[in-house]
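Appendix C: a fully annotated inverse folding record. The material below is reproduced so that readers can follow the format used throughout the book. The structure is listed first as tokens, followed by the designed sequence.
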């Protein structure tokens, strides 16, 4: 179980880093990576693409940071010391941030695409 858990923590960290990378490159004027936008949305139909990028950036940044933090805490929990309630609290935090992110993501789609 420990090896699987550690592998999952590594994957969680990598996913969080990819979200951060996608957010930062988007902010720097790049494209919106597929991790940050649904495949069925046509970027060309966005009412205000730059506005959407400004809207999405802080949300994606928080999502990426919390994801990396949670994965790192899992590694610490597995290899350094038991985090107990701290780890449980971080699990609740990552779940709350995930729900918040997707609610705000949908609001952004409605606002900037009218969908």
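Designed amino acids, in order:
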């Amino acid at each position: 179980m420990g090896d699987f858990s550690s592998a999952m923590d590594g994957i969680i960290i990598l996913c969080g880093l990819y979200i951060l990378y996608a957010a930062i490159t988007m902010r720097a004027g790049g494209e919106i990576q597929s991790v940050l936008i649904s495949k069925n949305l046509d970027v060309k139909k966005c009412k205000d693409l730059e506005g959407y990028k400004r809207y999405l950036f802080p949300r994606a940044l928080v999502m990426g940071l919390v994801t990396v933090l949670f994965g790192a805490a899992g590694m610490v929990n597995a290899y350094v010391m038991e985090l107990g309630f701290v780890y449980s609290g971080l699990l609740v935090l990552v779940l709350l941030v995930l729900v918040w992110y997707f609610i705000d993501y949908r609001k952004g789609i409605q606002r900037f695409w009218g969908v």
